[in-house]
Q: What sequence folds into this?
């Protein structure tokens, strides 16, 4: 800032010593210079016609003392705010003319003065000089563009359009500077106004008038008949003089020429005047005047000339087709003038003629009820007016009717499998064009679906009761033919023999042969087939009587039915001949070997019967005695047979028809020495066991004297026993060493000496004894209860009983008041042949010297 002041200080610093320079700088605070950085402050926009304020600022020292304002325009310069030259602010009234002017402020102080940079104000003003730019003259129907123009700041941004016609306003409603219009002759007196607007104001344009040019219009027609302008052109008589003139009252530009046109010819007849010096009926018609200018052609309204004459071109209008049985309308037309006032109708048939619609002779329309009989008749109409009358040309009506007398033509009788043709015939107008076929069988309908007048069929026996119907149709209606029945001849079918299915032997029954056939069956033949062997029964009748036996059980009967077409066999008929059991016999299994004592054998009762045997009875005869057995089954099994079961066995088999008994079958049993061996073995075994028990009890008694324990101990002993399998005589005895070891209870105590142990050795049986059948056995022990044998490969069971005698001391002095008991279930015993598993239980009890016994069964494998 203040460059002049800074420059002065620099000169002083150079010319004076430093100390004087510092002193002067303290005493002189500033240096004077002219105004600098002169500038004008002004608003961003100014609205024309309003006061605005301009401010002038500068940086000089001393401050500017007065200001001078100037307005510099393109062609002039003038002072501004001259009355306020000492002020830095200037109040200015903005106007539209100042848009292109510049404003300058000059600031002055005691040192000098300086001008500001020129500025231009943004002076805003509403639209000015608004006008519509378009063509001034336009032809009717031509589209033109109207454009709205005007000056404004800011620019125009809203537009509105309106049309003024005879002081009537119509808003066009377009917010755009251009619109397109298509003026007509009705707009010739109208003007268009555009309103332009911005943020300052809006202004209407000057009204714009469009000169609309149009073709001639508003025609005036003048006429005269024989010089009389009062005569009507619709009642002109032939040979009259007719004069017609034409004038257009409005045309812009003016009419350049006239012409007359007859509408049916579409070519000019004459100029502005249409003249008929001697008019005829052919001149009747519609005429029109045409006027032209450079815009186009205008036409007057239609002028009609009617020349009176008698009816001509009399004709009948009628529908192209008439449906019989419905009312139809006939209309009589003519070209006479005036129109015909009365009509007469006639129907002319080949052999007669009669009036038609006599009650409506004054009407051109005749309502008629056609029938099929009128097909060959003609119809005539006579038209009459005040001038004369004339007949029409005769016409024939196309009377349509649905099919009649529809029938099917074909053969009446046909053999099965033969193809025949069915043809559908009937009368109709229009001709029949649709056909449908169906077959009715037992009121069941089946559509054959052929749209043709002929079909080919191949009827079978199933169609014997059927009938065929053809439906013929046209556009009027359709009708069914009378049902056509085809007599289908076929050979017998479904041939079967009717009789009882089951019969007892020796009973006579009737076999009847039945079958369907056309014609009826008239020949029959019978045969019997047994094991492919044929036997003709030779009966030409539909029924035969037979008495079948058991030998006919496998036979079947066949009937052959025939007629003139063919013959057919029936399905074989099998007669179920029922008879009591026969050939009853008893067989033994196993067979072919002797029956030894102890063997198992099965007796079977077989027989031939129908129905199958339903029950059996067994009897045994020994000597004179006969014993019925309890078995009612086909098989009788004897387990471990004994000589007591010897005898003659026979069975009786029976069914619902009867029963028969077989011949006896003798059973002899070969005896065995097995029981003797058992007795010897048991004696030896008992002796050995007694010795062993004495030794064991003695040793326990000796041990007891040396011990204070009340429990019993058991020494190890060896018991020898001998056993022999039954049913094997020559086999050597089997010796068995049984090692008896010391037994203890669960707490490690030995049982008392005064105990008895039982052991049973069981040799397995070959088969199981059925329940309810008694078998011999061996019993041992005190209770003498029978012991049942277990099934295995060997039917022999050997029992062995070991008694252990108590010591005298234990008998006299029981060791425990409460007693002792041990039970061992199951276990293994070693024998000469191997180890065997115990199947029973071992119980040892000692209670006050009383010993209980429990047998133990062990099978020997």
A:
């Amino acid at each position: 800032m203040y460059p002049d002041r800074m420059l002065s200080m620099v000169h002083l610093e150079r010319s004076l010593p430093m100390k004087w320079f510092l002193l002067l700088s303290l005493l002189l605070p500033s240096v004077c210079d002219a105004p600098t950085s002169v500038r004008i402050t002004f608003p961003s926009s100014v609205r024309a016609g309003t006061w605005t304020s301009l401010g002038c600022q500068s940086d000089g020292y001393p401050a500017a003392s007065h200001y001078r304002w100037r307005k510099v325009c393109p062609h002039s310069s003038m002072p501004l705010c001259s009355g306020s030259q000492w002020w830095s602010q200037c109040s200015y009234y903005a106007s539209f003319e100042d848009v292109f002017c510049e404003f300058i402020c000059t600031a002055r102080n005691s040192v000098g003065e300086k001008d500001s940079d020129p500025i231009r104000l943004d002076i805003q003003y509403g639209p000015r000089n608004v006008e519509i730019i378009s063509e001034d003259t336009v032809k009717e129907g031509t589209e033109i563009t109207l454009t709205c123009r005007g000056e404004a700041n800011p620019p125009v941004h809203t537009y509105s359009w309106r049309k003024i016609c005879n002081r009537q306003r119509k808003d066009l409603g377009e917010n755009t500077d251009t619109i397109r219009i298509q003026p007509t002759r009705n707009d010739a007196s109208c003007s268009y106004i555009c309103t332009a607007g911005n943020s300052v104001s809006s202004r209407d344009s000057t009204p714009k008038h469009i000169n609309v040019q149009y073709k001639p219009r508003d025609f005036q027609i003048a006429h005269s008949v024989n010089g009389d302008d009062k005569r009507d052109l619709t009642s002109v008589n032939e040979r009259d003089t007719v004069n017609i003139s034409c004038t257009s009252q409005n045309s812009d530009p003016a009419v350049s020429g006239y012409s007359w046109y007859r509408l049916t010819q579409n070519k000019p007849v004459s100029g502005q005047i249409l003249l008929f010096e001697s008019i005829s009926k052919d001149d009747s018609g519609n005429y029109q005047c045409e006027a032209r200018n450079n815009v186009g052609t205008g036409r007057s309204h239609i002028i009609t000339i009617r020349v009176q004459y008698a009816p001509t071109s009399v004709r009948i209008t009628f529908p192209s087709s008439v449906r019989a049985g419905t009312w139809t309308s006939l209309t009589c037309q003519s070209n006479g003038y005036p129109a015909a006032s009365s009509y007469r109708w006639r129907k002319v048939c080949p052999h007669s003629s009669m009036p038609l619609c006599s009650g409506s002779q004054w009407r051109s329309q005749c309502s008629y009820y056609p029938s099929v009989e009128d097909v060959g008749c003609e119809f005539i109409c006579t038209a009459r007016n005040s001038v004369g009358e004339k007949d029409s040309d005769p016409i024939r009506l196309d009377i349509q009717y649905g099919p009649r007398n529809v029938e099917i033509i074909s053969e009446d009788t046909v053999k099965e499998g033969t193809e025949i043709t069915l043809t559908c015939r009937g009368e109709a107008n229009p001709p029949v064009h649709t056909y449908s076929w169906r077959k009715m069988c037992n009121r069941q309908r089946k559509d054959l679906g052929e749209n043709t007048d002929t079909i080919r069929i191949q009827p079978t026996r199933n169609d014997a009761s059927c009938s065929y119907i053809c439906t013929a149709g046209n556009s009027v209606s359709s009708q069914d033919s009378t049902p056509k029945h085809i007599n289908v001849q076929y050979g017998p079918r479904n041939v079967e023999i009717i009789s009882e299915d089951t019969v007892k032997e020796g009973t006579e029954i009737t076999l009847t042969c039945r079958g369907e056939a056309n014609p009826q069956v008239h020949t029959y033949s019978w045969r019997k087939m047994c094991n492919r062997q044929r036997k003709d029964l030779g009966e030409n009748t539909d029924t035969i009587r037979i008495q079948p036996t058991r030998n006919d059980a496998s036979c079947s009967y066949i009937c052959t039915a025939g007629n003139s077409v063919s013959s057919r066999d029936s399905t074989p008929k099998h007669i179920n001949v029922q008879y009591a059991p026969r050939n009853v016999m008893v067989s033994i299994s196993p067979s072919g070997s002797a029956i030894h004592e102890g063997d198992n054998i099965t007796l079977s009762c077989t027989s031939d019967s129908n129905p199958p045997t339903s029950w059996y009875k067994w009897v045994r005869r020994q000597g004179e005695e006969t014993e019925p057995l309890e078995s009612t089954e086909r098989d009788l099994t004897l387990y471990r047979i004994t000589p007591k079961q010897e005898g003659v066995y026979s069975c009786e088999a029976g069914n619902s028809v009867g029963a028969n008994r077989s011949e006896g079958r003798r059973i002899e049993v070969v005896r065995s020495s097995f029981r003797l061996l058992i007795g010897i073995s048991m004696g030896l075994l008992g002796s050995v066991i007694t010795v062993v028990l004495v030794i064991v009890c003695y040793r326990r008694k000796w041990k007891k004297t040396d011990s204070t324990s009340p429990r019993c101990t058991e020494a190890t002993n060896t018991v020898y026993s001998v056993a022999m399998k039954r049913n094997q005589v020559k086999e050597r005895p089997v010796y068995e060493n049984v090692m008896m070891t010391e037994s203890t209870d669960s707490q490690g105590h030995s049982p008392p000496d005064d105990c008895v142990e039982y052991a049973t050795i069981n040799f397995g049986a070959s088969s199981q004894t059925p329940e309810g059948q008694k078998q011999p056995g061996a019993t041992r022990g005190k209770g003498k209860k029978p012991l049942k044998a277990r099934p295995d490969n060997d039917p022999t069971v050997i029992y062995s009983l070991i008694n252990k005698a108590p010591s005298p001391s234990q008998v006299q002095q029981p060791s425990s008041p409460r007693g002792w008991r041990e039970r061992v279930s199951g276990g293994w015993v070693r024998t000469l042949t191997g180890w065997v598993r115990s199947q029973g239980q071992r119980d040892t009890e000692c209670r006050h010297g009383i010993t209980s016994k429990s047998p133990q069964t062990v099978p020997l494998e």
About this structure: The two ends are 144 Å apart (CA to CA). The chain has four helices and 68 strands.
